[in-house]
Amino acid sequence: MSDLKSARIGVITFPGTLDDRDAARAVRIAGAEAVSLWHADTDLQGVDAVVVPGGFSYGDYLRAGAISRFAPAMSAVVDAAKGGLPVLGICNGFQILTETHLLPGSMIKNNHLHFICREQNLIVENNQTAWTNQYEQGQTITVPLKNQDGQFVADQRTLDELEAEGRVVFRYSGGNPNGSRNDIAGISNERGNVVGLMPHPEHAVEVGFGPELTGSQTGTDGLAFFHSVLAHLVAA
Amino acid sequence: MARVIVDVMPKPEILDPQGKAVNGALPRLGFTQFASVRQGKRFELEVEGEVTEEILAAAREAAESVLSNPIIEDVVSVTVAEEGADK
Questions:
Q1: Which chain A residues are closer than 8 Å to B71 by Cβ?
Q2: Please, is A232 exposed, middle or buried when counting C-beta atoms within 10 Å of its C-beta (0-12, 13-18, 19+)?
């Protein structure tokens, strides 16, 4: 693909999804076309990338993301992701991606049991993925974090593997907000085309509507996710 | 109607925040006898007619693939409760 404007990025809506519109808005602000995808459809409409957005799909019943995993659209996403399609899971979307086993580990309730909603600093630990290539390695970014089941857990072997392979993509900075192992906020698959994280880059893409403006910060630190995937698609 | 009972518990090595919260509440209500609490899930799968080996096998498969997440949970038992029993 050579023309950014021709990039089409799908955003899936499940029953109980909340952040699909913000994700679509982020895609448009980044300069691409947002394509609405419905959970019950198997057709991904030929999109170039997919965002699995946040919310409380199926009311978090059974386990967060557990029922959405079986949606027809997710079967198509899993197949396409294995072929290299860039997929970003945000919050509930990350939980869904772990339930599909596209990403390892799982999320359990925050260790303090409270719902969190705050601006969160993250360190970019890997800027080589499809969704982070426009960040500097080691850069600190600020985006909203809002969840109840945000504590990332995995067995020691999986954690060691993620660390050794550079698949920890984001780490919490300024204190661990939820008890996540190794301060992990986001991870990727081996190939780097699938990324999942609990914080919300799509809520930090427009001046005045993202995190508070302080110093040189613009509150738009999340936008580079979407610029990254476009750069990835152009390079592909 | 017969039922298949599936019990799912958080893995022992995984912190159980809900159980911890319940454990914190019990002494406040005077229940000081308990050292710790872990909270799990119980599923009742109702069956028309008899629970055959095939149905039990299907219940075990559902327990492992849907009702639990093997990364954070264990299926601790899949048992049959006959009509009238265990209610």
A1: 98, 104-106, 153-155
A2: buried
Of A39, A91, A227, A232, the active-site residue reads: A91
Q: What ipTM describes this predicted complex?
A: 0.82
Of the candidates A99, A84, A100, the one whose C-alpha atom is nearest the C-alpha of residue A50 is A84
> Distance between CA atoms of A32 and A25, rounded to whole angstroms?
10
Spatial contact of A186 and A214, defined as CB atoms under 8 Å apart: no
Question: What superfamily would CATH give domain B2-80?
Answer: Phosphoribosylformylglycinamidine synthase subunit PurS (3.30.1280.10)
Catalytic residue among A200, A203, A227, A232: A200
pLDDT band at B84 (very low <50, low <70, confident <90, very high): low
Domains, chain A, with CATH or none: 4-235 (3.40.50.880)
Q: How far is B17 from chain A (nearest CA, A)?
A: 6
- Look at residues A167, A108, A117 and name the one whose alpha carbon lies nearest to residue A143: A117
What pLDDT shows up at residue B83?
Answer: 63
Residue A1 above 70 pLDDT?
Answer: no
How far apart are the C-alpha atoms of B28 and B30, rounded to whole Å? Answer: 6
Would you place residue A102 in the very low, low, confident or very high pLDDT band (cuts 50, 70, 90)? very high
Residues of A in contact with B13 (CB under 8 A): 155
Structure-token match 């661990």, residue found? A176
Q: Which of A153-157, A216-220, B21-25 has the lowest mean pLDDT?
A: A216-220
Please answer yes or no on whether B71 and A153 come within 8 Å at the CB atom.
yes
Shortest distance between the Cα of A107 and any Cα of chain B, in A, equals 9
Q: How do residues A133-169 score in pLDDT, each as one tens digit?
A: 999 999 999 999 999 999 999 999 999 999 999 999 9
pTM: 0.92
CB A92 within 8 A of CB A55: yes
